[in-house]
Amino acid sequence: MENHRPPNVYPHRTRLHHATILRRNKVLASAYNRVGSRTRGCGYSEFTIHAEKNAIKSLGDLSKLRGATLIVVQYGKDGELMQSKPCHDCTLFLEKCMREHGLRKVIYS
Questions:
Q1: pLDDT tens string 23-69
Q2: What does pTM read for this prediction?
Q3: What span is annotated as the signal peptide, if there is one (predicted)?
């Protein structure tokens, strides 16, 4: 993955997660963690929608996940690459995507 610095979209936050869905070296979807909204139908009960779910939601058609790879990276406030790992809910969600929709691999920084 090329050296990618995230935009300064959340200057008050200390961490930013970015998720990209790839298949055959083509970017299918890309998204950051963001503040969610039940009225916009994100279906998320917390204050944010995690980058993994945001990218998959932006993909639209879940059949596009078949054979795809999801890459999730975490950036610090100054844009430095940090270690990332999924929360419990995202782990369950991604396991379901692998099992039911053919998501091939998930990689975390």
A1: 999 999 999 988 766 545 555 455 578 999 999 999 989 999 999 99
A2: 0.78
A3: none
Which residues make Cβ contacts (< 8 Å) with residue 50, sequence separation at least 6?
17, 33, 86, 87, 89, 90
- 62, two tokens: 């879940």
- Residue in the structure block whose two tokens are 């990276």: 73
Of 2, 7, 1, 13, the closest CA to residue 77 belongs to 13
- 3-state secondary structure labels for all residues of the chain: CCCCCCCCCCCCCCEEEEEEEEECCEEEEEEECEECCHHHCCCCCCCEECHHHHHHHHHCCHHHHCCCEEEEEEEECCCCEECCCCCHHHHHHHHHHHHHHCCCEEEEC
